[in-house]
Each structure stands twice: as structure tokens, then as C-alpha cells.
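Sequence only, no structure available. Ideas?
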Amino acid sequence: MEEQTIIEELIELDTRAADIHTRRKKQLAELEGRYKEEEKEMHRNYASQIEDKTRKTAKKILKEAQQEVDQLKLDTKEVLETMEREFEKSLKNITDEILKRIFDINRESHG
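Reply:
I predicted one. C-alpha cells follow.
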């Protein structure tokens, strides 16, 4: 082979190697860009899932708290009604006792 032919082939090989290097560099940059986009998308998905889970958990906690408040209101109402009945019963007993004593005193003095 002639020296000129060898030099031309070497130049051609060098040119192809440079082209391959440039294409690989471009492919690597594209892959890196896709990787970063996928990473961002994953972060968005996780953030969305966390937000949904947080919203559902907060809603559940609020619902349970409201149920407890409602139950406390019912319990308090029952206690108050019981206390009111007991008070009325005691008041009636005291009133009856006072009236009885008044009548007993009247009988003794007129009797």
C-alpha cells in the first residue's frame, strides 16, 4: 500500500472515530436529559402521592375527631338529662318533705 493511501485511510478512520465520538456524546447528553426528566417526573409523582396520602390521612383524622366530638356531645347530653332528672326528683322530695313538716306542725299546734 502506498503511503498516501494509508494516510487517507487513517484520516478517514480518524474522521469516522470523531463522528462516532460526536454521536456518542450527543446520545449521552440525550440519555442524561431523559434521565433528568424521568427523575423530575418521579419526584412529581412521589410529591403527588405524598400530598394525596396526607390529604386522605388528614380527612380521616378530622372525621374521627368529629365522631368523637359527636359522641362526647351525646354523652354530655345524657349526663345533663340524668342530672336534671335527679335534681327534679330531689327538688320534689325536698318540697314534699317541707310540705309534710308544715302540715305536721299545723296538726300538732291545732291538734
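The longest helix spans residues 3-110.
Hope that gets you unstuck.
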